[in-house]
UniProtKB/TrEMBL annotation:
GO molecular function list: glutaminase activity; imidazoleglycerol-phosphate synthase activity; lyase activity
Active site: C90, H199, E201
All residue ranges annotated as the Glutamine amidotransferase domain in the record: 14-214
One Pfam family hit: GATase
CDD domains with a match to the protein in the record: GATase1_IGP_Synthase
Statement: the UniProt record of this protein carries the keyword Lyase: yes
Gene: hisH
Source lineage: Bacteria, Bacillati, Actinomycetota, Actinomycetes, Pseudonocardiales
Keyword Transferase set for record: yes
Keywords from the UniProt entry: Amino-acid biosynthesis, Cytoplasm, Glutamine amidotransferase, Glycosyltransferase, Histidine biosynthesis, Hydrolase, Lyase, Transferase
Protein name: Imidazole glycerol phosphate synthase subunit HisH
PANTHER family, alphabetized: IMIDAZOLE GLYCEROL PHOSPHATE SYNTHASE SUBUNIT HISH
Pathway: Amino-acid biosynthesis; L-histidine biosynthesis; L-histidine from 5-phospho-alpha-D-ribose 1-diphosphate: step 5/9
Native source species: Actinoalloteichus hoggarensis
Reaction(s) the record says it catalyses: 5-[(5-phospho-1-deoxy-D-ribulos-1-ylimino)methylamino]-1-(5-phospho-beta-D-ribosyl)imidazole-4-carboxamide + L-glutamine = D-erythro-1-(imidazol-4-yl)glycerol 3-phosphate + 5-amino-1-(5-phospho-beta-D-ribosyl)imidazole-4-carboxamide + L-glutamate + H(+); L-glutamine + H2O = L-glutamate + NH4(+)
Amino acid sequence: MDGLGSLGFVADVVVLDYGSGNLRSVERALQRAGATVEVTSDRDAALAADGLVVPGVGAFAACMAGLRAVRGDKIIDDRLAGGRPVLGICVGMQVLFERGVEHGEESAGCAQWPGTVDRLEADVLPHMGWNTVRAPARSRLFAGLDADARFYFVHSYAARSWTLEPTPPFLPPQVTWAVHGKEFVAAVENGPLWATQFHPEKSGDAGAALLSNWLETLR
């Protein structure tokens, strides 16, 4: 993939380092998609970048503790207050909701979106492997991708409902769904805040195209 560099624009992206894993695979995937990438917890760099990516693997509570330790929740809030793009991935998406419930314990999230992340209702957990999604027709994140494109998931928890109502004159969020046992939120496009429950960096050509779509919005 030629990436955005061939179009005369190279996005500057920070992958937020708050102790969560999977940072380097996200970094490499963004570089292949055409971005200049820095992995850091530096506040100034994170605020100045064209785009901020918040990855996440593991438990909701542990990821929130790591985020707070580097004031990542405040960095996200400050970027969004200025209309600056943020992309959450996997648990980096989950922590954007109000709360997470794991093993009967509730943890506060970043509260960018209302709702709770809790255990999937499925016979087999974790939900691990490739799955299709149902994206809205106006999605920019999935633009150009086939309806049967598959993405790589590995999780046992997710947001299973969406309750945020649009406030005029803002456009309604674009919510993408997937099914494992029952429906859950697979991706969201909400103004400058986008997120995926799946791992685009592990999703082959479909994931690379999706990351390029996000980078294109950073122009």
